[in-house]
Design a protein that fits this description.
Distance between the termini: 105 Å
Shape: elongated
Strand content: 25-35%
Number of strands: 10
Largest sheet: 6 strands, antiparallel
Order of helices and strands: HEEEEEEEEEEHHHHHH
Length: about 280
């Protein structure tokens, strides 16, 4: 009898647990989006939920003016980066921040908060702010149905963060240091020592060429790279540096060498690059 009672109780407990854990799998009202973006030497991680307009008037009604907003739905949006950056010219240390905003008719306040684990804006305190900036609110057409945050106008040193929803958009610029970090590496690996590594010489020469630094030094480095281990792309870079230094005859001869190597490697892209460089120098 006792055994039957125990079996009965165990069955009832199992049914209660099954009911308690039963769920209906449905699409979220505001789906989550995770974006990872390389910006120069910095990696940006954006995590946010994307609510839809769904026939509603958004700013000034669903999202009131003058109040702290989680900038999306569910948890507040977060932005994380692994180097120090500047936001519209203001310094912000590397880390993870909740991205709160205070929408207004003509201007928004964008807040980077150190408190990243809140639900919505409940518990938000200005004491946790790491940075606040003011940005203009712009009208846009057509209407954006789903709230979107994206990285635009990427360069080696920066990106524009654009938020758009309904008929409104805002944006701000983030920037990071690149040149001091790269130059420190070049000093340590090439200038302070004489490495036996053609790849390092190629990288340094390409950086100098791309960033309008000392072209004579760039030519010295790329020559070392080519002499040690010639590739059609390293020889092509040497031709471009020679051309930029006004050494047209030498550049044409070097480009012809690069073209022949590219043809042998069956790389039509570099064949075309060399053809165009040669034509520009004639």
């Amino acid at each position: 009898m006792k055994t039957k009672k125990m079996l009965f109780l165990a069955t009832i407990l199992s049914l209660v647990q099954l009911v308690a854990f039963a769920q209906i799998n449905m699409p979220p009202a505001s789906p989550n989006s995770k974006v990872a973006q390389q910006m120069g030497l910095t990696v940006l991680h954006l995590d946010y939920s994307r609510p839809g307009k769904k026939g509603r008037k958004i700013f000034g009604e669903l999202v009131p003016f003058g109040q702290v907003w989680r900038t999306g739905a569910n948890n507040p949006s977060t932005l994380e980066f692994d180097t120090d950056i500047r936001v519209n010219g203001q310094a912000l240390p590397a880390g993870k921040y909740a991205l709160y905003t205070i929408p207004g008719k003509k201007q928004w306040t964008v807040i980077f908060s150190k408190k990243t684990e809140l639900w919505g804006a409940m518990g938000y305190s200005a004491e946790d702010d790491a940075l606040r900036i003011q940005v203009p609110a712009k009208k846009q057409k057509p209407v954006v149905e789903t709230m979107t945050i994206q990285f635009m106008d990427l360069s080696d040193t920066g990106a524009t963060v654009n938020l758009s929803w309904d008929k409104t958009q805002i944006e701000f610029r983030i920037e990071s240091e690149v040149d001091p970090i790269v130059m420190k590496q070049i000093r340590e690996l090439l200038i302070d020592q004489q490495p036996d590594n053609p790849g390092l010489y190629f990288q340094a020469a390409n950086y100098y060429f791309t960033n309008d630094k000392d072209l004579n030094t760039a030519l010295e480095w790329i020559t070392k790279s080519v002499d040690q281990d010639a590739k059609y792309y390293t020889v092509h870079l040497k031709a471009k540096i020679q051309a930029k230094l006004g050494m047209d005859d030498e550049a044409i001869a070097t480009a012809e060498r690069s073209k022949a190597m590219a043809e042998e490697a069956k790389n039509p892209d570099y064949v075309g690059l060399n053809d165009r460089l040669i034509e520009s120098l004639k």
